[in-house]
Amino acid sequence: MGIGFVSLLWMKTKHIHKISKGITLLIVLSCMAALAAAGQILYESSGISSFKLKQAEDGSRVIQRTSQDYQTYRSYSEVDGDQLYLIGSAKNTEEYLNAEGISGSISWSVRKGERLERVLWGKTEAATELNVHDSYPVLVSGLGGCCAEMTGYRLFNLEDGRLLMSFNDFKYRQKVTQPFSLEVPNSDLAIRYFGLLSQDSTRDRDFVAPAPGKSAVLLIKYANEMLRQKLQVDMEVADGYAASVLDVKLEKDPAAPNSDKIEFRDDQATLWNIDGATHPAQVSGVILTVTIDAGLGSKTIKIPVKNDRLDLGSAQIPGGVSIQPLVQLGVF
Fold first, then answer.
1. Among candidates 143, 171, 138, which has minimal Cα distance to 155?
2. What is the pLDDT of residue 5?
């Protein structure tokens, strides 16, 4: 009787001990899960979005929008590993319903780090859109305008905020993240960019006095980590006309070795003809082709890229057109 009672008591105690251990383990796991859940937030931010429809005293109606946006960019290198960038922005715009036109301003900052703790740079400017590239370390701000004006875009280096160039998009895309670009595969050479800007741009029309008898109609720019070249196209314009850019494109240069290997995707050219190149002077193989009409018939300009520059010495420039270099940095 005594032995049975002791055995029963021991079994109950063992069962209670197991339950106690189970409860303790459950509590510990719950606490760990709670701590893990709390520890998952490495960085957090929020903003305000709003919408207003207003009517001015003259009866015109205006839509006012305020919005907060967060865009990211990821890069990987053997030296720095996986890097995450956060581009946070606050945008205010006014859209006029009684007439075409939009205005606005955007403030943004760029962060990176394990907890996005490092603010690399920030900026506030008149702008109506901000777009981050999916593959290249750049962002583009755009300022829309009214009527026949062309949105003026600015291309910034994502790491340090350096302005690489301003340009227009002659394909009128819904979202613009770059001008034309050249990429050398399997190489540490930076991406090269082409940008063109017309007199219809909403901003950055920094033209100079044209050649005698001509009008300044277009700026052509070439950049890598910084602006390398800026050329001004001057041409004869018929009375009552304004110059209009009909077409802009990149083509393979048949005179360049292995140019048949170059691949084009939209406005991006991949220079497989110089796969693995290590020196900037090797960058070549494409021709920038621009067609403009100023009331005297369409004129087509062809400028090849040689030795990592727009080579005016080999360019095809039609009659009534001249090109003057405004920025020409040294040999690359």
1. 138
2. 45
